[in-house]
Amino acid sequence: VDFRCGFRTLAIIIFEGVVLNMELTVLGSGTYIPELNRHCASYLLKVGSQNLVFDFGRGTVGQLLKEGINYYDIDAIFITHTHADHCSELSSFLQIALEGPPLENLRNKDLKIYGPVGIDKMVHNIMSAFGIVDNTVKFKTEIKELKDGECVEGEDWKVKLLEVEHKPSRVCSAYRVESENKVFAYSGDTEDCDGLRNACKEADLAIIETNNTNDKEKQGHMTGKLTGKVAQESNVKKLVVTHVSPDYLENVLEDVKKEYKGSVVLAEDMMKIVI
Ligand SMILES: [Zn+2]
Ligand SMILES: [Zn+2]
Fold first, then answer.
1. Most Cβ neighbours (<10 Å): which of 2, 112, 216, 258?
2. How far away, in angstroms, is 138 Cα from ligand 2 center?
């Protein structure tokens, strides 16, 4: 134990106890390609005692457990779009969260699921396909579709959905989270567009997908150079590059750094950043 480090932490708690940090944990930094060390898209954002989860791809429930977060500890889920690598694990989550072990309903707070247009239908389709019945009596589940620019607020946080361009696929959204004077942005899957830039504007931390290895085609995804350009022009203070194709992992940061002059890292599963 480093005594000085411990003392400093104690001092911060005493003198800055009112300052509320957001803490990001990357649960899934991968793409839809199966990899042992990179799960599908999911990010945990702790704001005070609240647990917000952005996207819920394959592996999310297990990754949350590694963080000590069980299914009943989640306050709100924000889905960017209905591609399976961003939401497929909702099926097993909803089974345990809504049907639950018969005699122990461990959740003591309402569950909120947010997303762009189409999320309500998707959640109900999952429940119908897997025969999931909502047996819960101690809490309510709210599924809410947010329009472009619409905000929801919780204890100490405000989240805004911004529609982004993930063509030709489907409706997709980025999210901008504000808590006290800090801003966190998550791109979802997107090309360079106004929605992405509005989400990232002056962000303390932005996590941006960079799934496009080809500079010439748009393909509904960001190239390294574009991610760097958007982060630079949006004045992002710290950048995390995520959702990178396995064959682009080695070179992506080199491309990002051609445009972005700030602090940048490549996302890894279970990476943690205090905002
Ligand atoms: Zn997608
Ligand atoms: Zn994706």
1. 112
2. 34
pLDDT in tens, 226-274: 999 999 999 999 999 999 999 999 999 999 999 999 999 999 999 999 9
For 221, the token pair is 């995804």
Is omega for the bond preceding 102 within 30 degrees of 0, making it cis?
no
Q: Give the integer Cα–Cα distance in Å for 37 and 57.
A: 14
Q: How far is the CA of 8 from the centre of ligand 2 (A)?
A: 40
Q: Tell me the CA–centroid distance for residue 181 and ligand 2, in Å.
A: 29
Q: Residue 61 Cα, ligand 1 centroid: separation in angstroms?
A: 20
CB 175 within 8 A of CB 186: yes
Ligand nearest to the CA of 31: 2
Given a contact cutoff of 8 angstroms between Cβ atoms, the answer to whether 68 and 47 are in contact is no
Distance 196 CA to ligand 1 centre (A): 14
Q: Could you read off the pLDDT of 220-237 as tens digits, one per residue?
A: 999 999 999 999 999 999
> What residue type is assigned to position 214 of the chain?
N
Do residues 26 and 43 make contact, with C-beta atoms less than 8 angstroms apart?
yes
